């Protein structure tokens, strides 16, 4: 698309709370409130969201369909693109990060409430679009363990419906499919896109997400080779940041730290992850839209510099939040990813991608964003905070 006028989805579910914020059914308390007045750009605090990076201006005058666009990553992408493009969001609103995002009521935005499993909804949403970014999926360990069949149906059949509709429309300039870093299995150290993918034992529900995402990645590439659809696949490595809804570790840790509650860590917390701030993956996705040589490729997108054990991540969140929260270890008997660090050299060479936000900076930004939206009664008094 150069030269033309152009999410490790997170797990779980929260019911909508007062003013659109997620609602914690255990405490009967809204976790944070929506803050109006955002300008629909990026992901900062107080509703005055950070500016999209300059690369976003290279996508202009397009009609962009973002499936799962009401979610964490999708809504952030929509915020970057909506000033210069018509953006269509297709989402069942199961997780809704749109309230307070600055996107509501934007003249360039259309929200189609529907499901990717419904071909009619998909065809209705894609009509007139020139770009598709397919973020919609069932994700998150708890959700996958609870609903493995639904996970595979949504991820595989939903992607098939989108690819079929894209071919039928005849006017798609780019189709970006969200895969996952979990295609590399339980141990992934500086893995490259060409490395052999590793899947868990058959019958183990934990791996149905990875299996289904690897299948959709293969499907996207075959549609490129067989039908000429210009597809790209991205493999996100542990995305976090403002607007995250679901069960993600940093999301969980920050909310609990701000509220002075225990942070729950599975087993000894020695699992190792490389964390990528949401603006960095959005930057990479936009580069996939404007770089013609991205077509036909898969890309690892993450930040190898921001690598830490889960236990030390919890400690950092407590420190940066100035919290007195304790860290509580709980036994976890299910298979887990023990090590996940990407090699992003291919994205550097083809997309000119480089992650910009390191872990401490990203966690501080995210803490500020959530703190600005917390219901006051849920926030510990400043006098009770531990100095950072």
Summarize this, please?
The chain contains ten helices and 18 strands. It is α/β, with parallel strands linked by helices. It has one domain: NAD(P)-binding Rossmann-like Domain (Rossmann fold, 3-Layer(aba) Sandwich).
Q: What is the total number of structural domains?
A: 1
Poorly predicted regions: 2-49, 376-388
Sketch the major β-sheet: 7 strands, parallel
Q: What Rg, in angstroms, do the CA atoms define?
A: 20 Å
- Return the structural class: alpha/beta
Task: Give the rounded overall mean pLDDT.
Answer: 84
CATH fourth-tier homologous superfamily = NAD(P)-binding Rossmann-like Domain
Percent strand equals 15-25%
The name of the CATH topology is Rossmann fold
SSE succession? EEEEHEEHEHHEEHEEHEEEHEEHEEHH
Q: What CATH architecture would you give? A: 3-Layer(aba) Sandwich
Which overall shape is indicated by the principal axes computed on the Cα atoms? globular
Number of strands: 18
Task: Please estimate the helix content.
Answer: 25-40%
Tell me the span between the first and last alpha carbons. Answer: 46 Å
> Which CATH class is shown?
Alpha Beta
Summed up, the helix count is 10
Strands of the widest sheet, in order across it, are: 6-5-4-7-8-10-15
Describe this structure in words.
The structure is a single chain. The N terminus and C terminus are likely disordered. 32% of the residues lie in helices and 18% in strands. The chain is globular, with a radius of gyration of 20 Å. With 388 residues, it is of the alpha/beta class. The strands form five sheets. Strands 6-5-4-7-8-10-15 form a seven-stranded parallel beta sheet, sandwiched between helices.
């Amino acid at each position: 698309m150069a030269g033309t006028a152009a999410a490790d989805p997170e797990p779980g579910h929260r019911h909508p709370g007062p003013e659109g914020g997620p609602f914690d059914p255990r405490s009967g308390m809204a976790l944070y409130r929506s803050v109006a007045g955002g300008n629909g750009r990026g992901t900062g605090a107080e509703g005055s969201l950070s500016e999209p990076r300059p690369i976003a201006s290279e996508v202009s005058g397009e009609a962009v369909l973002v499936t799962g666009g009401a979610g964490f990553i999708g809504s952030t992408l929509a915020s970057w693109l909506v000033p210069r493009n018509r953006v269509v969001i297709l989402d069942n609103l199961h997780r809704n990060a749109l309230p307070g995002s600055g996107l509501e009521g934007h003249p360039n935005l259309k929200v189609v409430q529907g499901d990717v499993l419904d071909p009619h909804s998909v065809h209705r949403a894609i009509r007139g679009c020139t770009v598709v970014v397919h973020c919609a999926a069932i994700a998150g360990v708890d959700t996958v363990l609870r609903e493995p069949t639904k996970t595979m149906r949504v991820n595989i059949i939903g992607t098939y419906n989108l690819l079929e509709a894209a071919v039928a429309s005849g006017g798609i300039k780019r189709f970006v499919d969200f895969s996952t870093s979990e295609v590399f299995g339980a141990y992934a150290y500086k893995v490259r896109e060409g490395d052999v993918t590793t899947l868990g034992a058959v019958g183990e529900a934990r791996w149905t997400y990875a299996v289904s995402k690897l299948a959709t990645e293969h499907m996207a590439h075959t549609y490129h080779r067989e039908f000429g659809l210009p597809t790209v696949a991205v493999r996100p490595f542990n995305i976090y940041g403002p607007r995250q809804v679901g069960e993600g570790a940093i999301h969980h840790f920050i909310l609990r730290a701000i509220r002075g509650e225990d942070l729950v860590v599975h087993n000894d917390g020695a699992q190792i992850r490389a964390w990528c701030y949401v603006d960095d993956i959005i930057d990479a996705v936009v580069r996939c839209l404007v770089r013609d040589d991205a077509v036909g490729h898969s890309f690892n997108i993450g930040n190898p510099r921001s690598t830490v054990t889960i236990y030390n991540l919890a400690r950092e969140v407590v420190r940066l939040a100035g919290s007195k929260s304790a860290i509580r270890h709980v036994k976890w008997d299910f298979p887990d990813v023990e090590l996940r660090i990407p090699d992003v050299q291919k994205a550097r060479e083809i997309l000119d991608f480089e992650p910009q936000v390191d872990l401490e900076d990203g966690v501080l930004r995210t803490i500020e964003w959530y703190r600005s939206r917390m219901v006051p009664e849920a926030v510990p008094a400043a006098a009770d905070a531990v100095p950072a």
